[in-house]
Amino acid sequence: MTTLAPSLEALIRQLPKAELHLHLEGSIQPELALSLARKHGVSLPGALEGLEGLRRRYRYGSFEDFLSLYLAISECLVVAGDFTAIAVDLARALAAQNVRYAEVTVTPMTHVARGVPGEVVLEGLAEGRARALREHGVELAWVFDIVRNLTQQAEPTLALALRGREQGVIGLGLSGPEQAEWPREHYASIFARARDGGLHSLPHSGEFCGPEGIWDSLRWLGAERLGHGVRCLEERALVEHLVEHRIPLEVCPSSNTALHVCPSFEQHPLPRLMEAGLAVSLASDDPPLFSTTLTDEYLRCAAAFHWTEATVLSLASAAVEHSFLPEPRKRELLTTQRTVAERLRTGG
Ligand code: ADE
Ligand code: ZN
């Protein structure tokens, strides 16, 4: 890998950042996953050989491979304190990278379907979010997510998301397999009711499916941002639409590489997305599962795509602009970013 200029690396590490696409269940560090698994007697793949055995499973032949590990880790969450522990641990990891604000996807029904009451999930998340701010100065907002192939979980996910609005739930997501058997049209009324209730529409789209899936997310779900969205490049009219309507993309290059959406990090379409004038921000998706962090995403992109300090600053400010932070908090974070960048530039 190209070595970065120390000033560029310092900027990436020290800039106060926002992250708009990461999954809570996919952010559990392997050490914590193992300790939760031991506590609840859950067997994790590879865990008989300890931490290294588990880590060896963090390579995926397919998205289905990835999902099965993701679901195995999700099974380690049983009591409210588990949800609190993973939220606080995530905040610790974010604070270490100077990430000040994150919109974090949670899939509550995976837990409810295993017998964990929705109330327990909400209670654990509320405590975790409060402690994230108090102990680590990191503000978390939740996006409750529907798994596309589990259609019967859509209504209860919406109900939980609406109940959670007072506790930091700001959006409704849609993830999981993108195949046509579970068309987005099916979720139109759920997303309409979510939007009526003040929740933002934040579906995954254009990761494994092409332009048609993105059009469907816009048409049926009123998507306000796209999780991934990278395959929009396959249709010029779609790119023009996304640029004109300023629909931002949450771009996760290491995830796309690990899940074979693109053949290598260096061949990731991010530079082409930026050249096309699309609104993009960088994100880490499921950081430990893809051996990355948000900071690593910036470092890897800066090296692979020869970014300047101005590019880094513009991507970092885009994440704040595209977020659903209240306007005064946005301005405050943008000002802090500029102050830190200026201080580093002048050596002050
Ligand atoms: N759930 C967790 N990570 C995901 C991804 N990259 N795509 C779809 N669903 C997911
Ligand atoms: Zn995702």
Number of helices: 16
| Beta-strand content | 5-15%
The biggest beta sheet reads: 5 strands, parallel
Q: Could you estimate the helical fraction of the residues in percent?
A: 40-55%
Q: Which blocks of ≥5 consecutive residues have pLDDT under 50?
A: none
Bulk shape: globular
With strands numbered from the N-terminus, the spatial order across the biggest sheet is 1-2-3-4-5
Roughly how many Å apart are the termini? Answer: 30 Å
* Average of pLDDT: 96
**Pairing-aware structural class of the strands and helices?**
alpha/beta
User: Care to count the β-strands?
Assistant: 9
List SSEs in N-to-C order: HEHHHHEHHEHEHEEHEHEHHEHHH
Hetero compounds: adenine, zinc ion
* Rg over C-alpha atoms, rounded to the nearest angstrom: 19 Å
Characterise the protein shown here.
By secondary structure, the protein is an alpha/beta fold. The chain is about 50% helix and about 15% strand. The chain contains 16 helices and nine strands. Strands 1-2-3-4-5 form a five-stranded parallel sheet. Strands 6-7-8-9 form a four-stranded parallel sheet. Helix 5 runs parallel beside helix 7 (about 120-135) and helix 15 (about 310-320) packs antiparallel against helix 16 (about 325-345). It starts with 5 loop residues before the first helix and ends with a helix. Bound molecules: adenine and zinc ion. Zinc ion binds near residues 21, 23, 175, 204 and 285.
Note the topology.
Blueprint: H1 6-14, E1 17-23, H2 30-40, H3 50-56, H4 63-74, H5 80-95, E2 99-106, H6 108-112, H7 118-136, E3 139-147, H8 154-163, E4 169-175, H9 188-196, E5 200-201, E6 204-205, H10 211-221, E7 226-228, H11 236-244, E8 249-251, H12 253-258, H13 270-275, E9 280-282, H14 294-305, H15 309-321, H16 327-346
Parallel strand pairs: 1-2, 2-3, 3-4, 4-5, 6-7, 7-8, 8-9
Helix pairs in contact: 1-14, 1-16, 5-7, 8-9, 15-16
Bound molecules: adenine and zinc ion.
Adenine (ADE) binds next to loops.
